[in-house]
Amino acid sequence: MNDMSSIQTAVALQEIRAGLARENLTQEQLAQHIGLSRTGVYRRLNGDTAFTVDELTATAECINVPLASLLTPQAPAGSPLTREPAGASSLPSERRTA
């Protein structure tokens, strides 16, 4: 797995964990929703086993996020998974406003 792929996977897993917390769901509840054992979900959330597209689709539905956010995740600004500090802008400095 290349570095970009590893980062995207890490961000997707972080998004899934955040979605579970936001929706107040357990790994067991996610497992029931997507048809896996709790151990299967645990292995996927730890990156030991990859999610299938069908599992990601059901997971996105369960945590109320668009599937695209898990397939092409973007790390939030300031995240240890990005180089851009929080509050930084991608606009050229002369176009930034205070």
Keywords, separated by commas or semicolons:
434 Repressor (Amino-terminal Domain); disordered C terminus
Walkthrough of the structure:
By secondary structure, this protein is mainly alpha-helical. The chain has helices at 3-22, 27-34, 38-45, 53-62, 67-71. The chain has five helices and no strands. The chain has a single domain, classed as lambda repressor-like DNA-binding domains (434 Repressor (Amino-terminal Domain)). 52% of the residues lie in helices and 0% in strands. Helix 2 (27-34) crosses helix 3 (38-45).
Topology:
Blueprint: H1 3-22, H2 27-34, H3 38-45, H4 53-62, H5 67-71
Helix pairs in contact: 2-3
Low-confidence stretches: 82-86, 88-96
Count of discrete alpha- or pi-helical segments spanning 4 or more residues: 5
Span from first to last CA?
Answer: 40 Å
Helix and strand sequence: HHHHH
The CATH class turns out to be Mainly Alpha
Strand content: under 5%
| Domain unit count | 1
> Looking at the structure, what is the overall shape?
globular
Radius of gyration: 16 Å
Amount of helix: 40-55%
Mean pLDDT: 81
DSSP strand count = 0
Instruction: Give a short account of the largest sheet.
Output: none
Quick recap:
The protein has 98 residues and is mostly helical.
